[in-house]
Amino acid sequence: MDNKIDIPMAVIKRMPKYFRYLEDLLRGNISIISSRELSVKIGFTSSQIRQDLNSFGEFGSRGYGYNVQELYEQVKGILGLYKEHKVIIIGAGNIGQALANYSRLEKLRVRLEAIFDANPKLIGISINDVEIRDVGTLDSYLSENMIDICIICVPCSQVEGIKDILVKHKVKGIWNFSPVDIDIPGGIITENVHFSDSLLTLTCLLNEQQGRQEQKESEDRIA
Amino acid sequence: MDNKIDIPMAVIKRMPKYFRYLEDLLRGNISIISSRELSVKIGFTSSQIRQDLNSFGEFGSRGYGYNVQELYEQVKGILGLYKEHKVIIIGAGNIGQALANYSRLEKLRVRLEAIFDANPKLIGISINDVEIRDVGTLDSYLSENMIDICIICVPCSQVEGIKDILVKHKVKGIWNFSPVDIDIPGGIITENVHFSDSLLTLTCLLNEQQGRQEQKESEDRIA
Q1: Which of B16, B95, B211 sits opposite A197 (nearest CB)?
Q2: How far is it, in rounded angstroms, from Cα B97 to Cα B81?
Q3: How far is the C-alpha of A46 from the C-alpha of B183, rounded, in Å?
Q4: How far is A221 from chain B (nearest CA, A)?
Q5: Using CB atoms within 10 A of its CB, is residue B67 exposed (0-12), middle (13-18) or buried (19+)?
Q6: Which residues of chain B have a CB within 8 Å of the CB of A13?
Q7: In sequence order, what DSSP letters do the residues of A2-59 get, joined into one string?
Q8: Cβ(B174)–Cβ(B150) under 8 Å?
Q9: Is B166 exposed, middle or buried (0-12, 13-18, 19+ CB in 10 A)?
């Protein structure tokens, strides 16, 4: 029997933003907020906010607004943040090092357990008090350690080999910063991050804006 | 008169993924692809693909499929990649350095013109042949140089000051890696990047999966 709670992916993708904004409200000592006020801050419509939060159960009371602390705790629960997540970083290049030093991880109870790399010059060095190990020992490391999330920051050519090891050890999640999408059907939950996608969204919007400006200028000349 | 080409943001956000997959197809020497085949690869439905691409004009011919090279060139145009974009990085910490070394920028014709930081230990050092300058000189630099995109990688406390300078000099776009969202209504087009959002999507999905498994186990025990 399949009791899957079918929360649309789009709703799940919006949850982290709710979390960030609720954190901000708490820092600002705001204790009650209406969906309309939250809408202005966060940029989703009030009805979308009500609908999103209803996917997970009853929140807030009509005409009164949301209790920020309560909503924050509940969103935190939805995001699985009451549990500590053990992670490892595979690939200690620029991105891997930036993530190892990323202070927000700790706040989100994400504990960096180990870092792996193939480069002999990096092996043995510590980042944020975590030593870089030889990636050749990843297989045996995962035999002995339960890891929730593997952060992959290796070049394309190394992804397949790493993937096989992670599948073998039934790692739960992959946070993938490598240039190739990882998709393991029915298997490990994966989030693929592509920096350049957001850059290209930006160039696309700039291009559109420029097109509009040029069109306007040409029309102004004709008029 | 407003001649805005109103392409939904969701479509624009999908364009970079089309671009990446079309690049892959070209590398694999695939010259024709149906929307159904593209759908399997990219993970959007065929009808979504047809609808997305139609937002920008006529692509492909019915029953024949898309000419990959042609589609690639057109998506490249939509993304504004026939134009070189001049960028600067503000903040040369881990993320700033990772981006300065990010080889994909060059492939996308994004030219790194300068890097700025406040740390005297970093000023004068070069990353990827670009020297780190004193952020105190940013204002005068922007008076003399036309920059398309500013990449912001500074801590929260410095964002406001930087933002004021960018608004003053009418920079076109901001690619924001700082922890706070930047939103300049009617002003500079901004893409806010939050690493942790994708991590939280992952922990949310892991949490959901665990919830389902626990429910199943408890039902199995009862059955």
Answers
A1: B16
A2: 23
A3: 19
A4: 13
A5: middle
A6: 197, 201
A7: -------HHHHHHHHHHHHHHHHHHHTT--EE-HHHHHHHH-S-HHHHHHHHHTTS--
A8: yes
A9: buried
Residue A26 contacts B where some CB pair is shorter than 8 Å:
no
- Alpha-carbon distance A202 to A207, whole Å? 9
Higher pLDDT, B212 or A115: A115
- Note whether A194 contacts B: Cβ–Cβ < 8 A: yes
What's the DSSP call for residue B188? S
What pLDDT is attached to residue B3? 39
Please tell me the distance from the alpha carbon of residue A113 to that of residue A2, in angstroms, as a whole number.
34
A15/B204 touch (CB, cutoff 8 Å), yes or no: yes
pLDDT of res. A30: 93
Distance (Å, whole) CA A126 – CA A114: 10
- Looking at the complex, does the CB of residue A18 fall below 8 Å from at least one CB of chain B? no
Q: Contact at 8 Å (CB) between B124 and B116? A: no
Which residues, 6+ apart, have CB-to-CB distance to A84 below 8 Å? A109, A110, A111
Separation between Cα atoms, residue A207 and residue B191, nearest integer Å: 14
pLDDT at A60: 64
A50-64, A140-154, B142-156: segment of lowest average pLDDT: A50-64
Contact with chain B for residue A45, Cβ under 8 A: no
Please give, rounded to a whole number of angstroms, the shortest distance from the CA of A203 to a CA of chain B.
6
As a whole number of angstroms, the distance between CA A151 and CA A137 comes to 16
Q: Please say if the pLDDT value at position A3 is more than 50.
A: no
What is the C-alpha separation between A176 and B48, in angstroms, rounded?
25
pTM of the model: 0.85
The owner of tokens 């989100």 is: A108
pLDDT in tens, A85-112: 999 999 999 889 989 988 888 889 999 9
Could you report the per-residue pLDDT of A186-223, keeping only the tens digit for each? 779 999 998 889 999 999 999 988 888 888 888 888 87
Tell me, what's the pLDDT at A106? 86
- pLDDT of A169 strictly over 50: yes
pLDDT for position A61: 62
Cβ separation B85–A209 shorter than 8 A: no
Cβ pair B195:A104 closer than 8 A: yes
What ipTM describes this predicted complex? 0.88
Rounded CA separation B170/B149 (Å)? 10
